[in-house]
Amino acid sequence: MSAIGRMWLVGLLSAALMVMVAAPLSAQSDEAFIQYRQKVMGSQGANMGAIGDILKHQLPLTENIAGHARNIEVTAGLIAAAFKKNISAGATDAKAAIWQNWDEFADMAKNTADKAAALAAAAQSGDMSRVGPAVKALGGTCGDCHKKFRKPKEESYKNK
Amino acid sequence: MLRCRVCLWACAGVVLCLLFVPGTLRAQGDVTRGGYLVQASGGCRCHTDTAQGAQPLAGGCGLKTPFGIFYSTNITPDRETGIGAWSDEDFLRAMREGLAPDGSHYFPVFPYGSFSGMTTADLLDIKAWLFAQPAVHQVNTPHAVWPPFGWRWTIGVWKRISLPYPRPVLPPAQAGDPQVRRGAYLVNAVAHCAECHTPRNLAGGLKAGWFMAGSADGPEGELAPNITPDAATGIGDWSAADLRWLMQTGFLPDGDDVQGLMAELIEHGYSKLTPEDMNAIVAYLQTIPPIENRVSKD
Questions:
Q1: Where is pLDDT greater, at A29 or B211?
Q2: Domain containing B82: what range?
Q3: Interface with A, mutate which of B45, B217, B251 (most A CBs under 10 A)
Q4: Residue B174: pLDDT above 70?
Q5: Any domain includes B15
Q6: A43 phi and psi, to 5 degrees?
Q7: Would you list the DSSP string of B18-29?
Q8: ipTM over 0.90
Q9: Claim to verify: residue B121 and residue B33 sit in the same structural domain
């Protein structure tokens, strides 16, 4: 084989090698992003669950409600960045509608953060009569966003 | 003297009219109680096409079933397109027997199999509330159901083989408990939980022996979970507080929200129940037989 031919061969093999390596790296990134954002959303759910446990079981931990609400406020502020990469295929319940209606999705995440802050303030005040309505308002933001942007249970990847 | 006789006959006439003229002239139900019972039944959400922003109770909401799509009817008091011309008897017959004023059968997607367990007083209270709502002129959308399931006359046969719905008998220890009996009434009749949470047989009736064991083909194709007290596949590991919290907020014990049709029923209906009624529902659900049934779409 001539020198030019060898150069072409090396170039082609290098390009093929780069494609083979890059493809699985890209897939891993998608999976990694999915896992990350599920942890962000899981954190939201865990803190809502904790607030629910305190209230429904009347645990003597009402002073912790504000902390859980602030946690929700912080992680709600991370949602937009966590979902920035458009990934709706694979082991995810994220609907393609997120990236088709990005501004609305981002606004809903901000609304959750705002309602969580309001709950934290209500809990901090010590006036438990304000906490119930604030929990309901925060919970409403979860449902509103899920209704539009999260696959229903029947279509969940967990059900497959 | 003549004036007294005329007056007397007039009074007698009024009394006779009140006694014998059909139900619309009898004592009306309690609107406030009726509103509460509507909430306890889930808020009549099926009769409001919320997705299209339609008028409340005016119907037109498509309910997907294995037999086709049934469109809910206008139950506002519009006399032409709603139920405004219905007497009390018409209403009771519809809710208990699934019969329209003209004698035709209603498809059992209208859950009269459950509503038949309601008392006359409660049903008339609901009618009073419905008749106090704004009338909306909206013609009913024809159902899109495949034959023979769309043939109304077949429903007469269906009723004979499917009704009354099979339900477990209360254990003796609970049968005398007023709270459990109230819960049974709310669950089985008013809130009609079994219509979604019990799987159906090929004829569309509730499967005997599977009471509240969940369905992969619930209304609108949604998954309706197993709500028997089975620890592995039902809600047996839920506390009474978990059940009440779900009805109050729509949140599950793990902090996730319930989603779907149930979320709407809770928001517009069950969350408005009194604490006593929530406790009654919980008490009853804890008595029904546990059934192992993992519900999934697979």
A1: B211
A2: 24-164
A3: B251
A4: yes
A5: no
A6: -65, -40
A7: HHHS-GGGS---
A8: no
A9: yes
